[in-house]
Specification:
125 residues, 3-stranded mixed beta sheet, 8 strands, 31% strand
Length: 125
Amino acid sequence: MSKVLVVRYDAQEIYIVPEWLDLEDKNQVEDYYVKWSILHAFLTDGRHITIKPNGELDFDTKYGECCEINDADEHGLEDEEPVWEEVDEKKQGLNADADGTFIKQTAEIVVCNALCSIGSGLYKS
């Protein structure tokens, strides 16, 4: 059975809330949440307002929170072929073994660089 490596990344979006709106004031805001990068606020006076984020989704993919290995079918990828390439260590400036040879590795897993559950933790009631 094929395996996948799941890497999680930290992401953030910033929403500029109008001065007149206090999301923590239960006398003003019944509930709010973020879905599909839109902040939804339900006010006690019956209004539903939306606020778009300030700028683009910001996340750093240099280092992810590593890692968990799952069966490919858990992610609907059981029929997918891995995309991989062998790295020429000489071009990458990496050190060779003492005799000048390089270790070759074969990738047998698919790396899923996915934002998993990006909305989780953004829901506030």
